[in-house]
Amino acid sequence: PVGTSVTQIKANDADASHNGHIRFTFEGGDDGEGTFALDPTSGVLRTARPLDREFSSRYNLIALATDNGDPPRSSTIDITVDIEDINDNAPMFDTDHIQLYIAENSPIGSTVGEIRARDPDAGRNAIIEYSITGGTDAA
Protein backbone atom coordinates (compact mmCIF):
# COMPACT_ATOMS: atom_id res chain seq x y z
CA PRO A 1 0.00 0.00 0.00
CA VAL A 2 0.97 3.66 -0.39
CA GLY A 3 3.05 4.76 2.60
CA THR A 4 4.69 1.35 3.14
CA SER A 5 8.16 1.68 4.64
CA VAL A 6 10.71 0.08 2.30
CA THR A 7 13.94 0.84 4.18
CA GLN A 8 15.66 3.47 6.27
CA ILE A 9 18.95 5.00 5.30
CA LYS A 10 21.27 6.45 7.93
CA ALA A 11 24.26 8.76 7.79
CA ASN A 12 26.57 10.12 10.47
CA ASP A 13 28.28 13.50 10.62
CA ALA A 14 31.11 14.22 13.05
CA ASP A 15 30.38 17.96 13.09
CA ALA A 16 28.85 19.35 16.27
CA SER A 17 25.54 21.13 16.78
CA HIS A 18 23.70 22.63 13.83
CA ASN A 19 26.41 21.73 11.30
CA GLY A 20 25.95 18.02 12.03
CA HIS A 21 22.24 17.87 11.22
CA ILE A 22 21.60 15.76 8.12
CA ARG A 23 18.85 16.09 5.52
CA PHE A 24 17.98 13.34 3.05
CA THR A 25 16.81 13.84 -0.54
CA PHE A 26 16.95 12.03 -3.84
CA GLU A 27 19.93 13.06 -5.93
CA GLY A 28 18.63 15.07 -8.86
CA GLY A 29 15.10 14.72 -7.47
CA ASP A 30 14.77 11.27 -9.12
CA ASP A 31 12.16 9.53 -6.94
CA GLY A 32 11.31 6.75 -9.40
CA GLU A 33 8.80 8.91 -11.29
CA GLY A 34 6.88 9.69 -8.10
CA THR A 35 6.91 6.10 -6.86
CA PHE A 36 8.89 6.73 -3.67
CA ALA A 37 9.18 9.38 -0.99
CA LEU A 38 12.19 9.93 1.26
CA ASP A 39 11.62 11.51 4.67
CA PRO A 40 14.13 14.37 4.86
CA THR A 41 14.89 13.98 8.56
CA SER A 42 14.49 10.26 9.35
CA GLY A 43 15.75 8.81 6.03
CA VAL A 44 12.76 6.44 5.77
CA LEU A 45 12.02 5.44 2.19
CA ARG A 46 8.28 4.85 1.60
CA THR A 47 6.04 4.04 -1.32
CA ALA A 48 4.28 7.11 -2.69
CA ARG A 49 1.98 5.30 -5.11
CA PRO A 50 0.92 1.69 -5.74
CA LEU A 51 3.62 -0.60 -7.12
CA ASP A 52 3.08 -2.68 -10.26
CA ARG A 53 5.81 -5.12 -11.29
CA GLU A 54 4.38 -5.32 -14.80
CA PHE A 55 5.03 -1.55 -15.15
CA SER A 56 8.50 -1.56 -13.55
CA SER A 57 10.23 -4.48 -11.86
CA ARG A 58 13.22 -2.52 -10.53
CA TYR A 59 13.96 1.00 -9.36
CA ASN A 60 17.49 2.39 -9.10
CA LEU A 61 17.51 5.40 -6.80
CA ILE A 62 20.30 7.55 -5.41
CA ALA A 63 19.81 9.05 -1.96
CA LEU A 64 21.72 12.15 -0.95
CA ALA A 65 22.64 13.01 2.65
CA THR A 66 23.61 16.66 3.15
CA ASP A 67 24.81 18.32 6.37
CA ASN A 68 24.20 21.93 7.46
CA GLY A 69 27.84 23.01 7.26
CA ASP A 70 29.11 26.04 5.38
CA PRO A 71 29.83 24.89 2.78
CA PRO A 72 27.50 21.89 3.07
CA ARG A 73 29.02 18.46 2.60
CA SER A 74 27.14 15.50 1.17
CA SER A 75 27.34 11.81 0.43
CA THR A 76 25.30 9.50 -1.78
CA ILE A 77 24.15 5.89 -1.63
CA ASP A 78 22.65 3.73 -4.37
CA ILE A 79 19.32 2.08 -3.52
CA THR A 80 17.97 -0.74 -5.69
CA VAL A 81 14.35 -1.75 -5.11
CA ASP A 82 13.26 -5.00 -6.78
CA ILE A 83 9.49 -5.43 -7.00
CA GLU A 84 8.26 -8.94 -6.25
CA ASP A 85 5.45 -10.29 -8.40
CA ILE A 86 2.00 -11.14 -7.11
CA ASN A 87 -0.54 -13.10 -9.13
CA ASP A 88 -2.61 -10.09 -10.17
CA ASN A 89 -3.20 -10.91 -13.84
CA ALA A 90 -5.37 -13.58 -15.42
CA PRO A 91 -4.05 -15.52 -18.41
CA MET A 92 -5.35 -14.35 -21.78
CA PHE A 93 -5.81 -16.39 -24.95
CA ASP A 94 -4.31 -15.01 -28.15
CA THR A 95 -7.79 -15.04 -29.75
CA ASP A 96 -11.44 -15.13 -28.65
CA HIS A 97 -12.42 -18.07 -30.85
CA ILE A 98 -10.57 -21.15 -32.10
CA GLN A 99 -11.90 -23.49 -34.75
CA LEU A 100 -9.91 -26.67 -35.43
CA TYR A 101 -10.37 -29.41 -38.05
CA ILE A 102 -9.07 -32.98 -38.07
CA ALA A 103 -9.73 -35.85 -40.47
CA GLU A 104 -11.97 -38.57 -39.06
CA ASN A 105 -9.40 -41.26 -39.79
CA SER A 106 -6.54 -39.48 -37.98
CA PRO A 107 -4.52 -41.73 -35.64
CA ILE A 108 -5.09 -41.49 -31.90
CA GLY A 109 -2.76 -38.90 -30.42
CA SER A 110 -2.70 -36.73 -33.54
CA THR A 111 -2.16 -33.02 -32.98
CA VAL A 112 -5.35 -31.13 -33.76
CA GLY A 113 -3.99 -27.65 -33.14
CA GLU A 114 -2.14 -25.49 -30.68
CA ILE A 115 -3.83 -23.16 -28.22
CA ARG A 116 -1.76 -20.43 -26.58
CA ALA A 117 -2.36 -18.10 -23.68
CA ARG A 118 -0.17 -15.42 -22.12
CA ASP A 119 0.17 -14.22 -18.53
CA PRO A 120 2.12 -11.01 -17.82
CA ASP A 121 2.96 -12.15 -14.27
CA ALA A 122 6.38 -13.67 -13.56
CA GLY A 123 7.77 -16.94 -12.23
CA ARG A 124 5.27 -19.36 -10.69
CA ASN A 125 2.52 -16.76 -11.12
CA ALA A 126 2.88 -17.00 -14.92
CA ILE A 127 2.50 -20.79 -15.16
CA ILE A 128 -0.62 -21.61 -17.19
CA GLU A 129 -2.52 -24.88 -16.93
CA TYR A 130 -5.02 -25.87 -19.63
CA SER A 131 -8.16 -27.98 -19.31
CA ILE A 132 -11.33 -28.59 -21.29
CA THR A 133 -14.30 -27.34 -19.29
CA GLY A 134 -17.15 -27.70 -21.77
CA GLY A 135 -18.35 -29.71 -24.72
CA THR A 136 -18.66 -33.45 -25.20
CA ASP A 137 -15.03 -34.16 -24.19
CA ALA A 138 -14.97 -32.04 -21.05
CA ALA A 139 -13.06 -33.60 -18.16
TrEMBL record:
GO terms for cellular component: adherens junction; catenin complex. Residues 1-93, 94-135 form the Cadherin domain. It holds the Pfam family Cadherin. CDD domains: Cadherin_repeat (cd11304). SMART domains: CA. It comes from the Eukaryota. SUPFAM superfamilies: Cadherin-like. The keyword Cell membrane does not apply. The keyword Ligase does not apply. PANTHER family: CADHERIN 23, CADHERIN-23. This is Protocadherin-like wing polarity protein stan. The lineage of its organism: Eukaryota, Metazoa, Ecdysozoa, Arthropoda, Crustacea.
